[in-house]
Amino acid sequence: MISHRQKPATPWLLIVLFVIISASAILLGFLYYKSQKARLLNDKKLELSAIADLKVRQIAQWRNERVADAILLGENVPFIKQLSEYLHSPKSKALLPDITSSLNSLTRNLDYKSVILIDSTGKVRGNFPKQDSILGNNLRKQLPDLLRLRTGMLTDFHAADNIGYVHLDLVIPLINVWRKDKNAFGLLALRIDPHELLHPLIQTWPVPSKTAESLLVRQEEDKVVYLNELRFKKNAELVLVKSVSEEKLPGAMAVRGIEATINGEDYRGASVVAAMKKVPGSPWYLVAKVDHNEVFLTLNKQITLIIIIIILFILTIGLLLGILEWNENVRFYREKYEAELDHLALRKHFDSILKYANDIIFLTDRNLIIIEANDRAVETFQCDRNELIGTNISKLRAPGTIRALMQEKRILDEKGFATFETAHIRRDGTIIPVEISARKVEIEGVSYFQSICRDITERKFAEETLKESEERFRKIFEESPFSMAMTGKDLGIIRANSAFCKMLGYREEELKSFTFRQFTHPDYIKGDDVSMLKLVAEEIPLYHTEKQYIRKDGIVIWGSATISIIRNNNDEVQYFLAMVEDITLRKKAEAELEKSFSLIKATLESTADGILVVDGRGKIVQHNHKFMEMWRMPESVMETKNDSDAIKFVMDQLIYPEEFVNQIKQLYTDPEATTSDLLEFKDGRVFERYSQPQKISGRSVGRVWSFRDITERKRAEAELIAAKEKAEESDRLKTAFLHNVSHEIRTPMNAIIGFSALLNEPDTTEADRHQFIDIIFQSGSQLLSIINDIVDIANVESGQAKLNIKEMNLNSCLRSLDEQFSYKEKPDVISINLKTGLPDEESVIMTDSTKLIQVLSNLINNATKFTSEGNIDFGYKRKDGYLEFFVKDTGIGIPPEHHEKIFERFFQVDNLISRKFGGTGLGLSICKAYVELLGGRIWVNSRPGEGTIFRFTLPYKIPETPQ
Ligand code: ADP
Fold it and tell me: In this predicted structure, what is the pLDDT of residue 91?
């Protein structure tokens, strides 16, 4: 709440609070003081009463003791006798010292001031001490009475002219009791000085005190006489006299018979607390008193402190409340300031609302006369503000609306507010539809009408448009060839167009009692629910689905449904609009298509060729797995569906990638072409590539590529060619062999036939005959050797060559070979040297000696054949588990290209020497066959013109030594 006061309110509450607290503090202090005072007074009264009692008892005691002294002395017969004797016989002066001594002992022992012995005539007969032997005037006057006494008596306080101090006398009548005398023969007067014994008894106070005292008084006529020394008045005994009637004087009250503890005023006129008692058996009254001032001294000191505390407390409370009030004032002024600011802001705010408000705002009096109008009103009605002010609101109303004005005013009056739609008219005659929100306001007790008029031209227009659009929608909905239905949030049909009804075979009325679920095929309901939730949650803008519906006649149809949401102004779901297209025919066609597609797919997959179908723009349309397998293409490349990716991937595999790519490029420019070519791969594979245009209605739309792996076929072909070539070669070799053999056989046969004929010639000398027989023999041997070679190779070829393993003395066999060849071959130009690799005793091995010797003989034979001069070395050495044999010559050598071939059958290096020396070309073949048969291998190292070295190995097997 914002206060409208200009000044902060008087803090009455705080003031009252302050007064109450202060008064309470003072009252509490006062009550405390009072209670303390009463308590102290009470304590003091009790104390005084107790002290007074004590004193009275002591005084009474003292008096009793004195009387007892009198009785004791009066009844002391020997003493009385002695005194009697002394008084009755004046001559008996001799007794005087004893008597004086007795009297002296009395004064000494009993604390009597002096003792006087008086005879019956009143004459002092003995005294002690001497200086005090005077008989007081007071006592002298009473003598006749005293002599009549039977027992001792204590006089009251009295003064005597001849005695300097107030005193008392203990008078003891001296009676000879043993003689049964009635009258006393004398008196013994013991003078008591009260200052010595009685006054200290009265004056002593049991506790330390500055003003406490007790005193004795007695009454003399209407006077009160003070009997003892007073604390505050010296020499007052028997001198100070006060009237019995003094109201507040404790002494007076005592003699008046008041025995109590009271407040009074003592002989000084000071306020005192006094306790009064009568001393029994005497005319005395005891007053014990103490000054009020002393009683309340500590309390008065305390009270000063309490007053200071109370003042401080009140000041503190005052300060606190002051601070509170100050804070309150600060808050008040701050709030005031803030409220002022708010007020200012509010005013500005309202000013700007009025000024810039989009609505017309009028304030009219009860007669609808405008008294205030905002800028918008001026602008809308195209007139001056002053013109508007004072105008009746009815002048601004459109003609047809004036009648309603009175009605509106009545409602406004009754309810206090009203909202209605009406129309204003401008100066130029334009009608503006408005919505008026009017309110009755009270300003200073006078009623006004405030109306806010909103131009609703646009809204009206929008409403019209909406109406139109709704009409249009209704028309589209109703007349649409597409099946359409509108459902509520529960998917219950609200409206269905005729196409929809026709599609499902129901009437619209029937459908209105249905929900979509009731004619949706059960298989699709669950999926629908999830998607509808997504649609509602705006995860998807539209829900499109293809599903089956059940018609009224039970036939299942296919529908393509698109469902959208119609929301209200609050963005809440109001309706669902479903458009359903009957796609049963399409679905059927699709099923057919799928069938044929699957057929194509199966066909594609079952072929051994890789197939790739690409459309006119290089997009991969189809391919089979064989294609991917052949091209080793990963799924990822095919997933791009891009022909260029596939080409990029395969290029590296090919030997001629450029040709491959060019061919493809070429075909893009010529879509009608049919091609076939071969693709060679770096890994040796060969593909046949065919391509064929894919045509639809005679027009090329793409291309089908097929790839066939013909690697195997190519290899078989090559093998076939090689085999053929080999057969031809073999044929050629055989021809050469036959040619050779026939030549080799013919030559010795001619010699044999020729020289055999010459043998029979008569003119043939014996020497010639011998020579001819030698030639015939050599030729026969040569013929035999040729036949042996042919037989050996035939055995090897047919697998009939058998091994005959037995012990062999290698060194000795080699030596005989050496000898054999050294003897046989040109010993003058060629030296044959043997090098054995093992000592003789170790040179016994297990092998087929015949075959080994044949191998070595063949090799040495060749060496001698192809060496014109130099050395032929042969021998062996041991190497691991083998024996390595060698035959080395310094002959013509063998070109390197023939190093392998010379081991083939019938092969001869075509040179003069071969031709000259003949030979079948079988020797090395036999060597190779035998060495391999014996478990070794043979090879050659040679250079033409430098010589040849044949090496072969044999397993080194020694005979088993018998155990
Ligand atoms: P041939 O019976 O023709 O000698 P081989 O099979 O023994 O048949 O030899 C085949 C061919 O190898 C010979 O014709 C010859 O050309 C060549 N040849 C063999 N040994 C030697 C060698 N030591 N020096 C040069 N050429 C040789």
Answer: 67
Tell me, yes or no, if the pTM score tops 0.70: no
* pLDDT tens digits, 513-544: 888 888 889 888 887 778 888 888 888 889 89
pLDDT of the residue at 5: 65
Q: CB 65: neighbour CB atoms within 10 A?
A: 13
Atom of ligand 1 nearest to the CA of 903: 6
- Give me the pLDDT at residue 131, please: 58
Tokens 């030596």 sit on residue: 815
Show the tokens assigned to 88.
């009755």
**Residue 383: φ, ψ to 5°:** -145, 175
Assess contact for 851 and 933: CB atoms under 8 A: yes
Residue type present at position 801: A
Q: Residues near ligand 1 with C-beta < 6 Å?
A: 862-863, 866, 889, 891-892, 894, 902, 908-909, 914, 919-924, 948
Instruction: For ligand 1, atom 18, name the residue with the nearest CA.
Output: 862
- CA–centroid distance, 591 to ligand 1, in Å, is 82
Contacts of 417 (CB under 8 A, 6+ apart): 437, 438, 439, 440
Write the CA distances from 961 to 839, 842, 848, integer angstroms. Answer: 18, 12, 19
Any idea which residue has 């209105």 for tokens? Answer: 512
Q: Is 379 helix (H, G, I), strand (E, B) or coil?
A: helix
pLDDT tens track for 83-101: 888 888 766 677 777 777 8
Mutate which of 858, 902, 911, 930 for ligand 1 pocket (most atoms within 8 A of beta carbon)? 902
* φ/ψ (deg, to 5) at 442: -105, 120
Ligand 1, atom 19, residue with closest C-alpha: 862
Output the CA 922–ligand 1 centroid distance in Å: 9
Taking 70 as the pLDDT cut, the residues of the chain under it are 1-5, 90-92, 109-111, 130-134, 824-827, 911-918, 962-963
For ligand 1, atom 2, name the residue with the nearest CA: 919
Strand (E) or helix (H) holding 118: strand 114-119
pLDDT at 78: 86
CB 591 within 8 A of CB 598: no
Lookup: tokens for 344: 């200012």
Helix (H) or strand (E) holding 578: strand 573-582
Burial of 317 (0-12, 13-18, 19+ CB in 10 A): middle
Query: Whose CA is closest to atom 21 on ligand 1?
Result: 862
The SS3 of residue 802 is coil
Q: Residue 1's pLDDT is what?
A: 44
